Amino acid sequence: MTLPYENATSGSNAVAEMGSILRSFGAESFGVMEDFAKGELIAQFRWRGRDVTVRASAKGYASAWLRQHPWHSRRRSTKPDYEAAALRQAQTSVYSILRDWIKGQVTAVGIGMLSFEGAFLGQIMLPSGQTVLERVTETKLLTIGER
User: Fold this and answer.
1) How far apart are CA 30 and CA 45, in angstroms?
2) CA pair distance 129, 143, nearest whole angstrom
3) Which of 14, 58, 80, 87 has its CA 20 to 30 A from that of 95?
4) Which residues of 18-37 are buried (b: 16+ CB within 10 A; e: fewer)?
């Protein structure tokens, strides 16, 4: 079984497309960055004065990719090189996932299916610098990830 987006080839094209999608949506600004220490990709934009920060884990995707394609001694690379290649692919794949997710959310807002807040609530930045999701998690308003 293949992992969705595992054959994505151009993270830079996905970033450019995100910018085009958000510009067409009326975003005032847009940018992306990578947190190397956390292994996260971060997309930020502002729409009608609302700042939005979307974080996505490339390390998480790389872990999933490595579960699907485990390293073994017959590989032509060392295990650390193989894992580094998995992380590079994960970054490309995650940029493509972010592009498609943002496109879906923006489309839902544009056709009136969701409000902007309904589509991006967890990623909206609060005056404190936290996202709504970070604040909700910190204050334990919801128990996220526990069932």
Assistant:
1) 4
2) 21
3) 80
4) bbebbeebebeebebeeeee
Q: Any bridge partners for residue 53, and if so which?
A: 44
Q: Cα dist. 112→18, 28, 99 in Å?
A: 20, 20, 20
**What amino acid is encoded at 50 in this protein?**
R
Q: Is residue 144 part of a domain?
A: no
Contact assessment for residue 12 and residue 20, using Cβ atoms and an 8 Å cutoff: no
Residue 5 lies in a domain: no
Q: Determine contact, residues 97/86, Cβ cutoff 8 Å.
A: no
In this structure, the chain runs to a length of: 147
How many domains is the chain partitioned into structurally? 1
Backbone conformation region of residue 106, classed left if phi is above 0, alpha if psi is from -120 to 50, else beta: alpha
- Residue that the structure tokens 């056709």 belong to: 111
